[in-house]
Amino acid sequence: MNRVSISCNIFFDNSFWIGVFERVVDGKLSAVKVTFGKEPNDKEVYEYINNYYTKFNFGSSVTTKKKVKIKNPKRLQRAVKKSCDKTFSSKSQQALKLQFEEYKKERKKNCSIQREERKKYLFELKQLKRKRKHRGK
C-alpha cells in the first residue's frame, strides 16, 4: 500500500523566507527547498502548492522509519501545534544535501566539458592563424 505524506516548514533565513517541502512515499523521504521572498501567509502557501507542486524537483530520497499510530484528535491537534514551532528535520536536511551534492557534481562535469571545448576551439583557432600566416595572407 502506498502511503504518501507531505509537510511544509517555513522559516526565515537571513533575508528571505524559505520553505522546505518534505515528501514521504513508502518510507522514503525526499525534500525540496523553495525561496519565497516576503513572508507568505497560509493562503499564499496553499496556492503555491496547488500551482507548483507538480513542478517541484524532489531530489534523492532517504529511507525513514515512521510508526503509523492513530491518535486522539486533541492529542493530534497538540502535535500539529508543536510541529509548527519546530524547524525542519535532519532527514530533510540530508535529502537536500544529497540533492545539492548531485547538482554540484553535474555542474562541475559540465564546466569541465565546456572548458575542454573552449581549449580545443582556441587551439584550432591558433592553428588556423599559423596556417594563414605561413601562406602569406
TrEMBL record:
<dbReference type="Pfam" id="PF11208">
    <property type="entry name" value="DUF2992"/>
</dbReference>
<dbReference type="InterPro" id="IPR016787">
    <property type="entry name" value="UCP021328"/>
</dbReference>
<protein>
    <recommendedName>
        <fullName>DUF2992 domain-containing protein</fullName>
    </recommendedName>
</protein>
